[in-house]
Amino acid sequence: MAETDPGAELVVTPDQVVAREARQRPRIGLVALGAALATVAATLVQNVALADIPGVNEIDALRDVAGEPLGRDGLRTDKLLFLHDHVAGVVIPGILSALAYVGLGLVLLQLLRMTLDRGGQVPRPTRVLVYLGAVLAPIGALAQAFGQAINAADFASSSDHGTQAAHDALSTGTLLVGGTLVGELGILAITAAIVLVAIGAMRVGLLTRFVGVLGAIVGALQLLGPVFGGSFIVTAFWLIMVGALMLGRWPSGMPPAWESGEARPWPSQQEIREQRGRARAGGAPRGPAPAPAPAAPNGASAPAASPATSARKKRKRRG
User: What is the tens place of the pLDDT at every residue in 289-311?
Assistant: First the structure.
């Protein structure tokens, strides 16, 4: 059930809302832009640093299952050694992802507060979901990155480089497994938080319909990111748009709700149709304007034809 969040701070007047936000919005706008940059940088650094990481083909996998020699220690041995040699490509993206999640959480908290100050309604757990996502997702990203780096280092220094040892290094370990579980919980929380906050902010007029719907899509992409490789671009684009709104740099002008301190819901499709109908009804009559009467030879206006004269002319034309 959607209710006003009891954790929202009571503000007396819309002017106080606007005055307080004027101090906070520029900082949050820069945070949103920084989170967008970190989101893109994390993926680009990982893709560049690990572009040549060795893979496992199906033929080698079948040969290993059959017990045939592979010509090397194990299926994933080369991958673990590559990760050990390119540890920066593992750790730096993890740090950047953690920073992006923290920034995203701060942006969502500000949007949530602004929505509630304008009388918006969101489900009660929304604030808790934002906090959980902003804390657990960064912890998970860091734990996974450092856990993978530590496991790769331990594997490289060990004497067993077989397939099973490599498999264990990639899938076991308290830090790696714990980080994966914590990270998944954090991503679930941040997914729900993005959807709820974006829709709530759109309903009070803080976000345009496009930005609000795109925010809901961004939330879903947090879960579907591994399936859609370009999801980080959509997330960064949404953060840039929110940052532009926070900084008061929206190209087509700021939505009224930002400057009024009150809710200014967007009109529904029915209301838009009614407005268009009223505009057409109150406008000039449609169709070509009547032609002016011809002038008399002496400059005076020609007299209007009487109904009887018009009737005689019509009968002559028919005859």
Answer: 444 444 444 444 444 444 444 44
